[in-house]
């Protein structure tokens, strides 16, 4: 395991010129992602696996309401290369079956289809970070470039590096995990001379992967075994130092693994979910919801800040004269809520039960969801599949990348009722607890549910009577590791407290010390579990904000959380099952337990992008 630099820290406020408050709400029905078609010759009864050929492309989509009279917003989306109509934000859902591997040819198609020339990024790329750095060529790629002169460099405008990770997947081979240095550029006609077209580990893994002979320029082929518990996964970019921008631009989709001993019979839960070939408007009662904050410019384009926004004298800290990246904003909060690729949609719900698979797909924002009329969420699952038992919850706290599988019962709600799904989380880094809330007029609202009479009987089991698949607990740990989350200020004006970077690390010896030892991406690997071993990781959060910590390749148990100066407490409601992302609160130790399977090189990191 390798500690990744994460972008966790404090916030200069900034927003696009189209104010969130000026966008009309609840004028359009929710867009429900359809099912990604398999490649020709694959599919049911095929060669023992499902094969997809999925590219990421630049598209236009009405993320904003049509009545604003703006052109479609330019975004990126994944889609099936044989089905141009499937390119969308969010992307179509991959439906996977237990123990049936999925093989995906992932294509970086961020180029102009007419000319074959590369498309630059939609958003400002900070070239001063330790990042993929294609312009560095074979020697300088995957490193922090050095800059000379007095003024900070402008944004990188070259071809975009990209590599896809399936979040939450277990027992995948390292070559298929989307390692941050396994990126690749599009196979464009005008890649500048001297640029690296692939990351360091793309080259390495192309040689070692059993599928490496299928990796052609602009593409990689990954395979997922699907032998884990049935659950809600999602796929997104994972490129070194640019993930926040690649994900913000749009490409992300659900990956739903069904079947096996850890799933329920289909009729026990509200359904169906969208199916391949559904006609438009087909009735579905299992609906995935990806909630994200965004910000827009007056012309409808996506806004993302292009400057750290330091004012004098702190702007003297910018690289190259100082040590602070000039463009990268450590955490960004948009003033608009987007659900399934549309701002503030509504969903007509019948008087019956629905299953929602909710993903917080935001870069920095923690969500605290609540139904305006206090209708409860019956949470049945989380990141790693079903909980041991359904939990009735009034609010749902979701950090970036966390998922909640919930049932909401509208059968007792009067037809004609309109319910707003609220967000009580802050418009700022999450400190834990209940503090400042999001702006009630904008980001304090997520979507609207409009209750209408049922059109058929609901055969699903009421959630309080559901028996969920049993959970086999992990055994005793053989190893305990102590890890740290650290904010690091600029060394030039230490008293100014200007955040330079956020680093993961370990704790300095001896055991029992509370001295963090922050480490960088290119430091030697410190977490090196043996295959088959069970470990407990104690994550000491020395920063002032909560961080969602994600470990690749495993699903873990949350053991407990302990304030630095207090007794431990058990996991929260909804955390009794398996997780791949855990909220580590400031000034606390968060303990997670996991069993490592395959050998290989995998990352753990903060999911504040
Ligand atoms: Cu992720």
TrEMBL record:
Domain (Plastocyanin-like) ranges: 529-609
Under Pfam families, the record lists:
Cu-oxidase_2
Cross-referenced InterPro entries, in alphabetical order?
Cu-oxidase_C (IPR011706), Cu-oxidase_fam (IPR045087), Cupredoxin (IPR008972)
In alphabetical order, the GO MF annotations are: copper ion binding; oxidoreductase activity
Ranges for region Disordered = 133-160
From the Swiss-Prot or TrEMBL record, give the protein name. Bilirubin oxidase
Q: Which organism is it from?
A: Sorangium cellulosum (Polyangium cellulosum)
